[in-house]
Design a protein that fits this description.
The complex is a heterodimer. Chain A is an alpha/beta fold. Chain A has seven helices and six strands. Chain A has a four-stranded mixed sheet with strand order 2-3-5-6, with helices on both faces. In chain A, strands 1-4 form a two-stranded parallel sheet. The longest helix of chain A is centred in the C-terminal third of the chain and has 33 residues. Chain B has a single domain, classed as Diaminopimelate Epimerase, Chain A, domain 1, CATH 3.10.310. Chain B has a four-stranded mixed sheet with strand order 1-2-3-4, sandwiched between helices. Chain B is built from ten helices and five strands. The termini of chain B are far apart. By secondary structure, chain B is an alpha/beta fold. The chains are: A alpha/beta, B alpha/beta. Chains A and B meet through helix 3, strand 6, helix 4, helix 5 and helix 6 of A and strand 5 of B.
Chain lengths: 202, 363
């Protein structure tokens, strides 16, 4: 990272969610991509996806640049609830005609290289034809679908783990939340049936 | 009157002809080309014959001439227009002298017509009143008997190997051929059940030749192909100067072109039949294969296919439904802590690259 900072700087760089420095995306495509990214962020409140399209000098080491960019980018409109750990950066260089996906620490746990490769492959034909908007949209869609599946798997696993937490604890241990139901600390919740309801007088 | 004066040369020619015809009468035509493997050759004649006038004057091996006997010798001056007795079923033919040269000078066709006193259309009933009784119809005796015989025999020979008969009606130059009637109509009337080509040939003017087809032939030989036949035969005929030679060549070329037409037609039909046979055999083989399949297997297939389709449909339905449910769902992943690398605060450089300049997909 230090080497990259030496090359590109240590200051954070401001980045739009869709940064078209190469001016290759028509307004209509940008509009559509913004809709897709809105939906993505609504569905995955922890994650964000950013697109950066540029024509870099030929000598630029793109892998290094992508790595540095995600670490130094301050993406406008992305709240503090979504740190760059949770970010996915789609980076397209029109000089070398290469597309890259760089992921933060959280996103890399969710998206294996195989999934990222699949997303890029799906967009390849459109990128080759210069339909960048369409290619980027397909890439986003592939990542969206993959993350949905992963979320379902994780939720199932969480349910299984949650079922395990209902096991009776040893006598010496007591759940924190149990204390909140202690009648001496807080009033006990009113039961639904009248038979077992405690009298106000008592 | 000078045309009627005796000519020793003509007499000599008649005698030579009469004697030579008996020698060459049975000579066969050259064998037809093989239908298998031979490609159509429209230029090389099937029978490389010399012009009819030369053949009659000096026949050679391979030439075909009708069988006649020697003419009886007569003493004294011979009238060149007198009938030449010839043997053949007891019929005595009246041999006409070549029309073009009687006393060494050429007769113009119009003179010939005037000589006969042909009035407009008077000859037509001779051609069209009844169906042709032979392949060469020559009621005006525009051809001499040997000429008529040779060409008739050739047309008979053509009919012996071809399913398309050629009926040639010989008219004089400038004559009316059909009195306004269509030759196709005449062919249809005369040959309703046969494939016949009716040729109205104008002696001395091959380019005016008209062709008519019987209904059967009309189905096989379209207008374009008919015109090709006509043009090809006319072009060949025009290469000769003598009017009768032209007719002879015209008949030969017509036969030649029809020969190759029939060959192509036969090959096309055989090809279609082969394809039909192959598809029939394939269908039969498939049916036999299906019949050989064990009954339980067939039953399983019959039951399994709808089951598979139902199962697949249900799977797709459930999957779509699940995706629709997920579409509006907010999904969290929780926290998945991982070690930071390379001194980088947010990303450890996990990335995938792809080139879209060529076909390779590097990681």
């Amino acid at each position: 990272m230090e080497e990259a900072d030496l090359l590109y700087g240590t200051d954070d760089v401001g980045l739009d969610r869709i940064m078209d420095a190469a001016h290759c995306l028509p307004a209509e495509a940008r509009h559509r991509l913004n809709h897709l990214l809105d939906a993505f962020e609504r569905r995955f409140p922890q994650l964000f996806l950013s697109v950066y399209v540029d024509t870099l000098p030929a000598a630029t080491r793109r892998a290094e640049f992508g790595f540095w960019l995600l670490n130094r980018a301050a993406i406008r409109g992305i709240g503090a609830t979504r740190p760059n750990d949770n970010g996915i950066l789609l980076f397209i260089d029109l000089t070398s005609r290469e597309a890259s996906i760089v992921t933060g620490y959280l996103a890399e746990r969710l998206l294996p290289a195989r999934t990222l490769r699949k997303a890029l492959r799906r967009s390849k034909a459109d990128l080759m034809e210069g339909a960048y908007g369409e290619g980027i949209a397909k890439c986003i869609d592939t990542l969206d679908q993959a993350l949905r599946k992963i979320a379902i798997k994780l939720s199932r696993r969480a349910k299984e783990l949650g079922a395990g937490s209902n096991q009776p604890l040893p006598e010496a241990l007591r759940r924190v939340r149990d204390g909140n139901t202690d009648p001496g600390v807080l009033p006990a919740p009113r039961p639904a049936s009248t038979e077992s309801a405690p009298s106000k007088k008592s | 009157m000078s045309r009627r004066s005796p000519s020793a040369g003509a007499l000599l020619a008649a005698l030579i002809l009469a004697s030579s015809l008996s020698l060459a009468g049975a000579a066969p035509y050259l064998p037809l080309p093989s239908w298998e493997g031979a490609s159509p050759d429209l230029d090389t004649p099937l029978w490389p014959l010399s012009p009819l006038s030369e053949r009659i004057a000096a026949p050679s091996a391979g030439d075909f001439l009708p069988e006649v006997s020697e003419a009886p010798q007569k003493e004294g001056p011979i009238d060149p227009l007198a009938p030449v007795p010839m043997k053949g079923d007891g019929i005595v033919y009246e041999m006409r002298r070549p029309l073009e040269v009687l006393d060494g000078s050429a007769i113009r066709p119009e003179d010939r017509m005037l000589e006969r006193g042909t009035r407009q259309g008077a000859h037509l009933p001779d051609y069209f009143a009844n169906p042709p009784q032979s392949f060469l119809v020559n009621p005006q005796h525009l051809l001499s008997e040997p000429q008529q015989e040779v060409i008739s025999r050739f047309l008979e020979h053509h009919a012996s190997y071809s399913k398309i008969e050629i009926y040639t009606l010989v008219f004089d130059v400038g004559q009316e051929s059909s009195g306004g009637a269509n030759l196709d109509n005449s062919a249809a009337t005369w040959f309703p059940d046969r494939d016949a080509l009716v040729v109205a040939y104008f002696l001395g003017n091959p380019e005016a030749t008209q062709l008519g087809r019987s209904p059967g032939l009309m189905k096989r030989l379209d207008d374009a192909r008919l015109e090709e036949v006509r043009k090809g035969a006319v072009e060949d005929a025009l290469q000769l100067a003598d009017h009768v030679d032209q007719l002879d060549r015209f008949s030969g070329k017509t036969s030649h072109l029809l020969f190759w037409f029939e060959r192509e037609e036969k090959e096309a039909l055989e090809k279609i039949a082969l394809q039909q046979t192959a598809s029939d055999e394939l269908a039969a083989a498939e049916a036999a294969e299906a019949a050989r399949m064990p009954r339980p297997l067939r039953l399983a297939l019959l039951m399994g296919l709808p089951g598979f389709a139902l199962g697949g449909g249900a799977f797709l339905f459930m999957r779509n439904r699940r995706e629709e449910q997920l579409a509006g769902e907010v999904l969290y992943f929780g926290t998945l802590p991982g070690a930071k690398r390379l001194g980088a605060p947010y990303s450890g450089g996990h990335m995938v690259q792809m080139s879209f300049s060529g076909t390779e997909t590097p990681d």
